[in-house]
From TrEMBL:
This is Glyceraldehyde-3-phosphate dehydrogenase. PROSITE patterns: GAPDH (PS00071). Pfam families: Gp_dh_C (PF02800), Gp_dh_N (PF00044). Keywords: Oxidoreductase.
Amino acid sequence: MNDIADIAVRRLGINGFGRIGKLTLWHHVGRKYFDEIVVNVGRPVGGGLADIAHYLQRDSTYGALHGYLHGYRGLPVVTDLDEAEGSMRVDGVPVRFLREERNPGTIGWGRWGVPLVVDTTGQFLDPTVPGDHAKGSLRGHLMCGAEKVILSAPFKIKAKATPMPEDAVTTVMGINESHYDPRRHKVISNASCTTTCLAHMIKPVMDAFGASRILSASMATVHAATGSQQVLDRLPKGGKSDLRKNRSILNNIILTTTGAAEALGLVIPEMKGIGFIAESVRIPTSTGSLIILVLSIQESPDGPGVTREVLHTIYERAAAEDPNGYLHFSREQNVSGDIIGLPRAAAIIEGHEIHTRTAELAIDLQKVPGIPEALLKTMDSTTVRPRVTQAVIYGWYDNEMGSYVNLLGDRTVSVAEGM
């Protein structure tokens, strides 16, 4: 590897080498923006570096690394393994693996000349925890030499009354990436795969009709299994209350929770004024998920109605005008396997399954709190009848590589370019 004192070398640090960590390495090896990559595994692995290389080159969902990089004619791309240095070349890119420290504060990114770290562990979510916390924290990366850290998950502040730190921000590429201020922000959340898809589904509708016409919203994500599910039933750990997380994902559809509604308000602030419910279920697939979004939209008295055709036009135009190609619109009849690995697709709108129903609501203003009695007496009728359309919109997303890691890579490079 190059001399770590060479400041012209672009280096990236990756903390964690699970699903997102490995695929993040795949992404950046293929992208070739960073000259060197340092991966903190945080523990010994099997028989050594050769077993890390074995894990790196194979994936049960996306196939072989050389196939991902170069297609079916690709040849193995891992060379120059050096067990003593913990280094190898991956498609020509020098990669070093650290296998000692799990606490971000003791990894020592400064020693390796790493200014930017992507934390993919899912363990350090609270941006308010100080860097020297005994159990580790996101800010530990900054304490040990990194200048900025990107979290591949939503922030989760344990002390609910504690405000978000001034140097922390949540962004979704293609939605609010400009909210990141390189002079101010050191800790950046890339939100979640579900929030990313949801934001790209709801923003075109909000842009078309305005937030004030969206009366309520709800979503359910039919989500592929993640590392939090169990292969077989197991006994819950002490203090755990969600017993379903200990049931086998191989045999069950498992109800769970999602923080997408809360995180959506961070990237699209207008959503905070809209009643929103978000639910999630896990299903026995390795990736490829689906959001079912239901919107109640008030009809305009002097404009076109909210119909399936109108929504098709909104999404087709938004997809065509998306400079990054994050939003896709499809008239095909898709299944989840069709969208796995689709490059940089935050959301694939299933146009074939958009449905709308319009009805007239009867609202008795006498039962609405806050309306003065004197005003009610001036009305010929205290019943108003607004027309409301309920729209059901389906959006696919590859919750690992296609919809999340690729956009995480874009966020990472954009931050690096400003450093």
